[in-house]
Amino acid sequence: xxxxxxxxxxxxxxxxxxxxxxxxxxxxxxxxxxxxxxxxxxxxxxxxxxxxxxxxxxxxxxxxxxxxxxxxxxxxxxxxxxxxxxxxxxxxxxxxxxxxxxxxxxxxxxxxxxxxxxxxxxxxxxxxxxxxxxx
Length: 135
Prior knowledge:
CATH superfamily: Nucleic acid-binding proteins
Shape: globular
Oligomer: single chain
Mean pLDDT: 79
């Protein structure tokens, strides 16, 4: 069965976990939280938060990811089930990232007409994302 492609915009639940494999490849694991919201009358009500475990390889792994940062992730979605120590069966959502971007404060979401019609931005443009970081 083929994996579904997904794009998620959310916040990092913790700092990135960066590992270098014996082969020399760099891998970064991120936990991204997405909380849907809907309008109820004149107010917005938050739904249940969904967590995604994201795996980023090589160039994608070289970005600096810190707890609380807002990110956009595109990649292949897989689902797995596991049992906790307490015997509770839970579902895990995992994304093998094709692209990861950091959303800076004050950035606005593009209108549907502004979305690119080509492939998503690859990690090769990651240095451009870092040029706005003040450190």
